[in-house]
Design brief:
342 residues, single chain, 5-stranded mixed sheet, globular, two-stranded antiparallel ribbon, 11% strand, 7 strands, alpha/beta, Nucleotidyltransferase, domain 5
Amino acid sequence: MESVQGLVVGVDTHKDTHSAAMVDEIGGVIAALDVGANRNGYRSLLEWARCQSSRRIWVVEGTGSYGAGLAAFLSAEGEVVFEGDRPQRRKRGAAGKSDQLDAIKVAREALARPHPAVPRRRGQREAIRILLTTREGAVQAYRQGLNQLYALVVSAPEPIRERLIRLKGEQLIHACMRVRGASGLESSVTATTMRQIARRLNLLLSEAADYERQLAELVGAAAPSLLAEPGVGPITAAQLLISWSHAGRIRHEGAFAALAGVAPVPASSGRVVRHRLNHQGDRQLNRALHVVALSRSGFHRPTRAYIARRTAEGKSTREIRRCLKRYLARRFFRLLQRLDNP
């Protein structure tokens, strides 16, 4: 960690308790404390840290989950808070495991990092994240239910199967909501189950559409410039917003590309100079860039001209798409930076 001034407090967060450890600039342990994961515990932890040192930096593990409340409390109190990585798995033979040891490791690993991460901003962008993740859950449940419905149709009694086997998607759902079985236990149970699944899928479709409508309103108010970009819809724009969060969190567009997993990673050795794909980073952000690249490839004239030129140079489709995603990361990062710095 560059220019560390004062001490570093690492916090290992859990549902009911948080464990904190304070270390000096070289990683020596000064003190440790366990507190409850509530506002009284947060206040006790802050008072304890102030008694230990007048200058400190906080490194909180899980600022998007169990550590969200503590990170928000400390930021509101004017403390400097960074996001800590989950402690690396210990090798066999290491000196045991405990929450205090994990807190020490969080602090020491932060000291070794040149650029620790800043927690994401809450408020409007946290509301966008909640809507986006909840919509994704509804969409996944819809896909699972639809696959279940397809499987039921395939194995259904012949009269039901003949009526439904050629239908797909919403047509199948609407037909299953009206299906009736013939006399007989198997046919009756199959038809009843199909109607129940179809009703559930219809509710999930309505729920996902409502989330998307709310996302469109929030993203349109927060980042209209993103929605004006070709191939960018409210879902993609929402993912770009929550991955970026706010100006100052990501240092430059190269770091944003690395976060998205579209910056090539050096893989050279000896006389061989090459790069490989980066399979790390925020895979949801990578997917958002991939969707935009695919969309622009179909209708965006400058993108199609670029693809034709690179194809003539002998580049493969995958290589061209990687270049497009790298360009898009640069383009979107510059647009995002202007939101907080008009």
